Amino acid sequence: MPGTVVSDLSEDCPIEIRTSGNDRSAANIASAPPRAWRVLEVVGLAIAILVLIVFRFHAFDLPLETDECNYAYIAARLLEGGRLYIDVWDHQPPGVFVLFAGVIALFGDGPMVFRSTAAAFSLA
Question: Which DSSP helix (H) or strand (E) runs through 36?
Fold first, then answer.
């Protein structure tokens, strides 16, 4: 029936889902965008990833910046047994230093390693 209100929601919720009268359920209408939109989303995502890679790629040959050097230095000190906020200190939370320490332990401490890690996290 056209204009039927379909709702499994509690009475406290002000949201109503109206159907168009055909046999498709309201949940399917709301959750599945048309195929053309999905294709556009995938193409848009691919373009965004390509732009990100192009913008990051130009910096791969440049020296590390101050923040990157600081993270790498503190991470290396942590791997040598230093204690964060006691032997080495920075105002950043510990996660970035733990991440850099893990990257150094797995892949080494070259600038390309840090730039590749930054690009990978940017893509995520």
Answer: helix 35-57
